Amino acid sequence: MKAPFLISLAALLASPLLASELVMFCERPLVAQPVAENTWMVEGLTEELSTSNCGHIGNQAFIATPNGVILIDSGSSPHFGEALKTLIAQHTSQPVRWVLNTHHHPDHFFGNTAFDKAQHLTLATTRDLMTRDTDALIDNVERLTGRSLERSSVALPEVIEAGDITLGSYPLTLYAMSGHSGGDLVIMDPATGVLFLGDMGFYQRAAATAHSPSLQQWQEELNDLRALNATIAVPGHGPSAPSATIIDQTIDYLEWLDQRLSDVASEGLGANHALAVELPDTFSTIALAEYEFTRSVMQLYPRYEARLLWGAPQ
């Protein structure tokens, strides 16, 4: 951590708009939790999309810099994005100038249009997936949350390449991953040691695997991220925690899931046999463990059969 830099930055940002009342969304207050100096996260509910949560299930984070706010993920709707904008203004007088979208799932980028004065950025692979899937994702969000979304209300980001970047005068390092969704942006803040994992990391909430190209690849990429030795991490779902803690829990779950599916497929048994197991005690306290395990078997098991029984390429 660069203490002189952080002290001077804090002085520059010493005049946020004071919170006069709670910022509400879906009859719940939104709370910005401090993660590091001038860095906050807004934690979503560890649930699936539903009418009761109005889609707020993913995390957002923001960094207040001398030249403007860097927002990491914008939430599941323009309406949520507006509430998030109000919340951010209670912590800094700087406007949101950049929005970084970590991947193409709707709970992470459907709030973009609320930040119409900001520059929206993501990886090329992620933008391609957004372009391909946005209409289907809107249909699903509307079906599950009961909230209407205009097709024109989804703002697609511009493309940015992985590597060292500077937004205003603020340096970040971007990593291009693909283990969770096929196009996953991970962001490292060298000034604070915070690693913004997006859905490459889940903590105290079982990992969603539907769009993973390979559970083995996901684990390998997480091992690469562990080597960064970040101080603290913000996952896509669940609370912030030491980086190694979040990465290890995600790897442990993916490793067990991969082994379970491999073992049953190698025996020539069907998906029902894969489901017929008690989850290990290690995962018994993780939210949505049974739900996500069942979804993973239904979505991924045919791939394991094809590879392990019929020799199809992975």
Automatic annotation (TrEMBL):
Keywords, comma-separated and alphabetical: Signal
Matches recorded under SMART domains: Lactamase_B (SM00849)
InterPro entries: Metallo-B-lactamas (IPR001279), NDM-1-like (IPR050855), RibonucZ/Hydroxyglut_hydro (IPR036866), SoxH-rel_PQQ_1 (IPR030811)
Gene3D superfamilies the record matches: Ribonuclease Z/Hydroxyacylglutathione hydrolase-like (3.60.15.10)
Keyword Membrane listed: no
Keyword Signal: yes
Record-annotated Metallo-beta-lactamase domain positions: 57-237
A Pfam family per the record: Lactamase_B
Signal peptide from the UniProt entry: 1-19
Family designation: Belongs to the metallo-beta-lactamase superfamily. Class-B beta-lactamase family.
Protein name: MBL fold metallo-hydrolase
